[in-house]
Known about the structure:
The chain is of the alpha/beta class. It has helices at 2-17, 61-74, 134-146, 183-195, 219-225, 235-247, 303-319, 334-338, 341-348, 353-370, 380-383, 407-416, 466-471, 503-507, 510-519, 531-547, 558-562; strands spanning 36-38, 43-54, 86-87, 93-102, 115-118, 126-133, 148-149, 154-157, 160-163, 169-175, 200-206, 251-258, 273-274, 297-298, 324-328, 374-378, 399-403, 420-423, 486-493. The strands form 3 sheets. Strands 1, 2, 3, 4, 5, 6, 7, 8 and 9 form a 9-stranded mixed sheet that branches. An 8-stranded parallel barrel has the order 10-11-12-15-16-17-18-19, surrounded by 5 helices. A two-stranded antiparallel sheet has the order 13-14. Residues 167-521 form the Glycoside hydrolase family 20 catalytic domain. It catalyses: Hydrolysis of terminal non-reducing N-acetyl-D-hexosamine residues in N-acetyl-beta-D-hexosaminides.
Amino acid sequence: MRGEKTFSFFLLLFFILISQTTATNYPINVWPKPTTFLWPNPKSIFLSTNFTISHPYHRYLTPAVDRYRHLILSEHHRPIITPAINLTSSIPLQSLVISVSDVTSPLAHGVNESYSLSTPSDGSASAYISAATVWGAMRGLETFSQLVYGNPTRVSAGVYIHDLPIFTHRGVMLDTSRNFYGVDHLLRLIKAMSMNKLNVFHWHITDSHSFPLVIPSEPELAGKGAYSNEMMYSPADVQKIVEYGMEHGVRVLPEIDMPAHTGSWAEAYPEIVTCANMFWWPAGSSPALAAEPGTGQLNPSIPKTYEVVKNVIQGTIAMFPDSLFHGGADEINSDCWNTDLSVQKFVASNGTLSQLLEKFINNTLPEILSLNRTVVYWEDVILSGNVKVNPSLLPPQNVIMQTWNNGPNNTKQLVTSGYRVIVSSADYYYLDCGHGSFVGNDSRYDQPPGTDQGNGGSWCGPFKTWETIYNYDITYGLTDEEAPLVIGGEVALWSEQADSTVMDSRIWPRASAMAEALWSGNRDETGMKRYAEATDRLNEWRYRMVSRGIGAESIQPLWCLKNPGMCNTVHSFTS
């Protein structure tokens, strides 16, 4: 009780001093930057070698506490620039006390992730984290771990933090169909996401290229559609990934993309897939059958399609406990469907391809909803200029839209229609952009010297720098009434030219930039964009991630970090 009273005093003092908070960098920083971070007299205190963390027992918080205690005592992080901080003469910090208001709240969309943290400056034996839920406590543990540094280990003293995210959905989407990623690599991704306070791993599991997910009721889909027996995710693998995510406060959102992007299904069920294994761009003036090599779309006109699809939906949802299920529904190709005789017959009977897509949605959406899931679809399902459904078929209370085209304009269209929105704009959040085209025999690269190379063959070029990502406001152009419908954002790594060998460097630290923008924003207390002061903080954070086993890409020469501010431009502080 005495510790709780002490912590209450810290919080009272903290709130009194909130108005004095400035955008000034401190000698030790936290990424993502907390919404309120107060350190009125920067100094540090040794950490006891017998340091303990007390907490309420919880299936997932307890292993997180064990993990962080080991990290805190063993990391011995050495900042690139030694912090100019005096040590207090106080006794070493003995413990961290965690209190949680609600230990029963599940890890679900919208869960409260707020926490408050204080470290003593007056010789008190304990630091304190107070959180609304165990998931907020995990965020506080990550923050505390970043306040610890040096050998012997010390911790920032006299720090007061109150923290909560602006957006509830902060994710990374990874495509594991075009190239396979082993389970250990997916676990490392989740680990890094947790470090950056990201909370949703959007797993784009299947596509036209391979079907690596083993579904017990449909074993042939992976048995014939995976690249090999070694490139499959078994139910045990899925359980391991989901449990690991829970222990790190990261939800796993599965995506089974359909009815397009399903060529791999044809290995087991050729009769339900149109234009499967056809050359993607026929000779002559014929239109392409897919956006890229790897053709095939489910045929909504035959009953067998729904037998298989319903087994896939049921089998996938049985393995993934999250309340969201991603049903894809992007990039329907008219010409692919038109290669099929049954589709031709449907159209000849005065049917349209949009009606064919509606038939698919009407047969699959109720199945997903019956399993107590909210459905996420790519925006194409209602915004495509070619094949789309009537929005009346997709009630906003049951459907979330994910936008990837046309920047803030499409976001505006979706929220105007009443949908909650996840932003993954290709102009800002696509991490695969800027690496050129992956197709062979590409005449665009056979040009005389001096030819303007344009975007280098990358449809979504140029490369999205961390500053591009950091500066994007995902509610840009929305009214105060519309903005709350944007629930968050996801960076996306499509894997045409990526696999586990480059995963870390493609994602980090650019995903860290989005993580801070969605957690505490990209502006300081005066409303100015803070990417200039964020540069040195992100540089330091990148080095710390590397020391924790994450192969994050360098963003500047080391000289820049050793000479803070010297690598900025004169335009650093424009708003």
